[in-house]
Amino acid sequence: MDDSEYYYYEALSPGFSYFAIAGIPTLRESIPPTILSIYPEDGEIITTKRPTIVIKYSDNVAVDVNTIRLLFDNVDVTSLASINTTTLVFVPPYDLYEGIHSIYFEIMDRSGNRASKSVSFIIIDVVPPVIHSLQPLDGSSIEITNVTISASFYDNIAINLSSVMLMLDGVDVTSKSLLTSNSISYVTTLEEGSHTVLLLVKDTSGNQATASWSFTIRLPVDYMPYIAFVLILTAIAAIFVIRKRK
To answer: What are the pLDDT digits (tens) for 154-202?
Structure first.
């Protein structure tokens, strides 16, 4: 065949074109698939570290699911997604870092028409650290003056250890404390009475958590001097009675 044997006909219906080879007319669909929505939306700010990415699409005839391609942060994750003829769902298998993340989605229909879309979203952290396991217990009374003050903490991302501050009775004792990645402790000798502790902790996003608690030191009463005094008085009284009888 030469070029003179190819015939092309204009479409009579929107989205379709007719063409003929060797006089045999063939119908070819030319409307690409429609990408209805992508979540998260372009420019959206979210706080979830593992967002569920949902993409919806349709076609006037039928999509070819085998042509679907998903890039997340420029990495092909198509094989990790759940895909059907109308929806793609992808959940990252790890916690995402704070900042900008990108999605690229591509799809074709069975006629080979292609559609694609790119979006980006931002993750920010608004969850403060959690402080727990306070010692001594809030509102407790203890009978020793050698005291260990301690607390533990954690965060959904990471603790900014340089932000940790421990105060005892209004005095910063952080530099004298033992600080680890998830706890702080301070050993000291205190006088009897009420004492107050304040702990401040920030995460790497600047979210702050505080904990304040108090305890009282009440030393047990030593009754031995009183007992000895009573015994001495009893002995003197007994001696006095014995002498008087004589």
So the answer is: 998 899 999 999 999 999 999 999 999 999 999 999 999 999 999 999 9
Token pair for 224? 């031995």
**Per-residue pLDDT at 156:** 86
Tell me the β-bridge partners of 43. none
CATH topology of domain 130-217: Immunoglobulin-like (2.60.40)
Write down the domain spans for the chain: 1-30, 32-123, 130-217
For residue 200, the SS3 value is: strand
Residue carrying the six token digits 């991302």: 157
| pLDDT of the residue at 20 | 46
Banded model confidence at residue 222, pLDDT cuts 50, 70, 90: low
**Is the four-CA dihedral 180, 185, 187, 188 of positive or negative sign?**
positive
Residue 37 has pLDDT above 70, yes or no: yes
> Nearest CA to 156 among 72, 91, 102, 98?
98
Pick the CATH number of 32-123 from 2.10.109.10, 2.130.10.10, 2.10.260.10, 2.60.40.1220: 2.60.40.1220
For the chain, the average pLDDT equals: 88
* 3-state SS, residue 135: strand
What's the length of the chain?
Answer: 246
Alpha helices (runs of H) in 52-135, residue ranges in sequence order: none
Please give the span between the terminal C-alpha atoms of the chain, in angstroms, as a whole number: 155
Query: Rounded to two decimals, what is the model's pTM?
Result: 0.60
